[in-house]
Design a protein that fits this description.
The complex is a heterodimer of chains A (176) and B (390).
Chain A (H helix, E strand, L loop, with lengths): L2 H15 E3 L1 H17 L12 H13 L2 H17 L7 H17 L7 H26 L8 H23 L2 E3 L1
Antiparallel strand pairs in A: 1-2
Chain B lengths: L1 H6 L1 H23 L4 H78 L3 E6 L11 E4 L12 E4 L2 E9 L4 E5 L6 E6 L5 E6 L5 E4 L12 E4 L11 E10 L4 E7 L8 E7 L1 E2 L37 H15 L44 E2 L21
Antiparallel strand pairs in B: 1-12, 2-5, 3-4, 3-12, 4-5, 6-7, 6-9, 7-8, 8-11, 9-10, 10-11, 13-14
The chains are: A mainly alpha (176), B alpha+beta (390).
Chain lengths: 176, 390
C-alpha cells in the first residue's frame, strides 16, 4: 500500500473535520497583504514579520491539499508582488513553493500542535527566504548578501507571531 | 501516462505554476516592462481596503487623541478650579486686609479728630458680632488702660473695660445684660439707662410712658454714667412700646454694626455736644476716674455723686426747682410746687432723621474735658481750650 495514499487519506479526513470558509480564506489573504503594506508605514518593525507568508502556511496546512496550497501561495505571492516594487513573480514563486511544501507536509504531521506549528513556520520562513534570495540573485542578478543569523531571528519571531495568529485563525474554522 | 500524472499531479501543478511565474518574471526582466494589468487589479482590490483601514486608523487616532485631550482638559479643569479656589481665598484675605486697613484709617482719622484721648486696640480673642458679650483687646495696663474705661468705635459705643492685664484687657460688650450706660435721645433729649439684653438689641430703661421716644431716633451717651463721655452715638431705636410704668424701648447698638475688629479705648473722655446743641455739657456730671487708676485716689470725690437712678432723678428735680426759683424746704405749705415736667429749653421738632447720623469726626465747637471734680451748673460751664484734653 502506498504510504502517501494513506497520508493523503488521513489528510482528507482531517480536512473534512474542519474547513475554512472561502470568504475567510480570501479575507485573510487580502488582509495580511494589506497589513504588510500598510502597517509598516506607521510601525516599521512590523515589516519584519511576513504575514502573507504566515497566512499561506496556515491556509495550506489547513487545506492539506498540495494543489490548493500551491494556488494559495501563488495568489498571495502575486498579490504581494503587485504591491511591491519588484517584478511580479518573486514572492509568487517563493510562496508557491512554501504553499506546496506546507500542504504536503501537513499530510504527515499533526499541524494543530503548537510546537509543530512553531517549527513549521521556522522551516518555511527559511525556505521562503532562501527561494526569494535565490530568485533575486540568480534571476534578477542582484548582489544580495545573505544574513543567516538575522534571518534565523526573524524566523523565530515570525514563528512566535504565527503561533499566536494561527490560534486566532482557528476560531474561524468551521467544524464539520 | 495517466497513472504518472495522477501520481505526480500535485508537484506537476506546482511546477506549472512556478514555470508560469518564471515566464512572467523573464518577460518583465527581458522587456523591462511591467505587467500593469495584474498590478492594477491588485491595487484596485487593495486600495479601498487600505482607505478604509486608514479611515479607521485616523478615526481611532482622533478618538484617542480626543480622549487624551479630554483627559488633559479634565486635568486642566481641576488645576484651574484649584487655582480659582486659591485666588478666591487670596481675594478674601486681601479684602479683609483692605477692610481692616480702611477701618484702621477710619479709626485713625476718628482718633485724631475726636477730642477724647483714645487708644487704638485690636480685638484678639472673640469673634466679632453682637453675640460676643465680652472680648479681649490687645491693650493692657502697660498701654495705660484702666478698668472702667469706655471702649468705642466711630460708629458708636462698644463696651467697657472690665478687667485689665499687662498686655490685654477684657471688654464687656454693650449687649451684655450686666452692661449699663446713661443715654439721651437725640430729638427729645429723653434720658434713660441703656442695658444689654444678651441679644443683638439693647434696652433703654427708666423712660416714663409719658416720655416721647420715636422709632428710629438716635440715642447718645449722656455722660451721666461717669464712664462714657457725652455725645457718643449709642444706637437707633428699633421699637417703642408703652409698658406698665416705663416705656419698653429696644435699641440697635451702632457700635457693633460692623463687627468687632478694632476699637478705641477712651483713656481720657471729653464731652461733646449732641446734634443740635451749640454747646457741650452736662457740666454737673462727671466721669468717674477709672477704678484702679493711679489718678483715682487723688481725684476728690464729688459730693452727691449720681451713682443711682434715684440720685439722678432727685438731682433732676432739684435742678428743675432751682431753675424755677424754688427752694426746697423753704416754701410755705400750700404754695405752688415746681413744675417737674417743665423743660428748661424749648423743644424743636427734631424727629428722627432718615439716615443714621455719621460719627462726628470734626471736633466739637467746645469740647469739654471730663472734670474729675467739682460740680458746675450747665449754664455756668466754661468750655476748655480746644484739644486741651488730647
Amino acid at each position: 500500500m502506498d504510504p502517501l495514499a494513506d497520508d493523503y487519506t488521513i489528510g482528507r479526513r482531517h480536512a473534512k473535520l474542519s474547513r475554512i470558509r472561502p470568504w475567510v480564506l480570501a479575507a485573510v489573504s487580502i488582509l495580511t497583504v494589506l497589513f504588510q503594506v500598510y502597517v509598516p508605514l506607521f510601525f516599521e518593525p512590523a515589516a519584519a514579520v511576513d504575514l502573507p507568508l504566515l497566512a499561506v502556511i496556515y491556509l495550506a496546512v489547513h487545506r492539506r491539499r498540495p494543489v490548493a496550497g500551491t494556488l494559495i501561495g501563488a495568489a498571495v505571492g502575486l498579490l504581494q508582488d503587485s504591491l511591491s516594487r519588484h517584478p511580479l513573480g518573486m514572492f509568487g514563486i517563493a510562496k508557491t513553493v512554501v504553499g506546496y511544501a506546507a500542504a504536503s507536509l501537513s499530510l504527515r504531521v499533526d499541524a494543530d500542535r503548537t510546537l509543530v506549528r512553531f517549527l513549521l513556520v521556522v522551516v518555511f520562513f527559511l525556505l521562503h527566504q532562501a527561494c526569494y534570495w535565490a530568485l533575486r540573485v540568480l534571476l534578477l542578478g542582484e548582489s544580495l548578501a545573505a544574513d543567516p543569523p538575522q534571518t534565523l531571528v526573524l524566523a523565530v519571531i515570525s514563528a512566535a507571531v504565527g503561533v499566536a495568529g494561527f490560534a486566532l485563525l482557528d476560531k474561524l474554522r468551521r467544524e464539520d | 501516462m495517466e497513472l504518472l500524472f495522477g501520481r505526480y499531479r500535485h508537484i506537476a501543478v506546482m511546477l506549472a505554476v512556478i514555470f508560469a511565474q518564471l515566464l512572467l518574471l523573464a518577460y518583465q526582466v527581458k522587456t523591462g516592462e511591467d505587467v500593469r494589468l495584474i498590478r492594477l487589479w491588485a491595487v484596485s482590490a487593495i486600495t479601498p481596503l487600505a482607505r478604509l483601514l486608514d479611515g479607521v486608523r485616523t478615526g481611532a487616532e482622533r478618538m484617542l487623541e480626543g480622549y487624551v485631550r479630554l483627559a488633559g482638559a479634565a486635568e486642566e479643569n481641576r488645576r484651574l478650579r484649584s487655582e480659582v479656589d486659591r485666588l478666591r481665598l487670596e481675594n478674601r484675605r486681601l479684602n479683609r486686609e483692605l477692610t481692616s486697613l480702611r477701618r484702621s484709617e477710619i479709626l485713625g482719622e476718628f482718633q485724631s479728630r475726636h477730642p477724647s484721648r483714645t487708644l487704638l486696640a485690636r480685638v484678639i480673642a472673640a469673634s466679632s458680632g453682637p453675640a460676643a458679650r465680652a472680648v479681649f483687646v490687645d491693650r493692657g495696663s502697660a498701654d495705660g488702660v484702666r478698668k472702667g474705661m469706655a471702649v468705642i468705635t466711630p460708629e458708636g459705643v462698644v463696651g467697657r473695660v472690665i478687667a485689665v492685664y499687662p498686655t490685654a484687657s477684657q471688654v464687656l460688650v454693650i449687649t451684655d445684660p450686666s452692661f449699663a450706660a446713661g443715654v439721651i435721645s437725640e430729638v427729645h433729649r429723653v434720658e434713660g439707662t441703656l442695658k444689654g439684653t444678651g441679644q443683638k438689641l439693647c434696652r433703654i430703661e427708666y423712660l416714663q410712658n409719658e416720655e416721647r421716644v420715636e422709632r428710629g431716633e438716635w440715642f447718645y451717651t449722656s455722660g451721666e454714667d461717669l464712664v462714657f463721655p457725652r455725645g457718643l452715638p449709642v444706637g437707633r431705636v428699633r421699637s417703642v412700646a408703652p409698658g406698665k410704668t416705663f416705656l419698653e424701648v429696644l435699641l440697635e447698638p451702632s457700635g457693633l454694626a460692623r463687627g468687632l475688629e478694632e476699637v478705641l479705648i477712651v483713656l481720657q473722655g471729653v464731652h461733646q455736644p449732641l446734634p443740635g446743641e451749640t454747646q457741650a455739657v452736662p457740666s454737673e456730671l462727671y466721669l468717674l476716674a477709672p477704678p484702679g487708676a493711679t489718678a483715682a485716689p487723688e481725684a476728690p470725690v464729688a459730693e452727691g455723686i449720681l451713682s443711682t437712678d434715684a440720685d439722678r432723678l432727685r438731682e433732676h428735680y432739684r435742678r428743675l426747682g432751682e431753675l424755677q426759683g424754688h427752694v426746697f424746704g423753704e416754701a410755705a405749705p400750700g404754695s405752688r410746687p415746681p413744675d417737674f415736667n417743665w423743660r428748661p429749653q424749648p423743644e424743636t421738632d427734631r424727629l428722627a432723621k432718615p439716615e443714621a447720623p455719621r460719627p462726628r469726626l470734626a471736633p466739637p465747637a467746645a469740647p469739654q474735658p471730663v472734670a474729675p471734680s467739682g460740680s458746675l451748673p450747665r449754664s455756668q460751664a466754661t468750655p476748655p481750650p480746644n484739644g486741651s484734653a488730647r
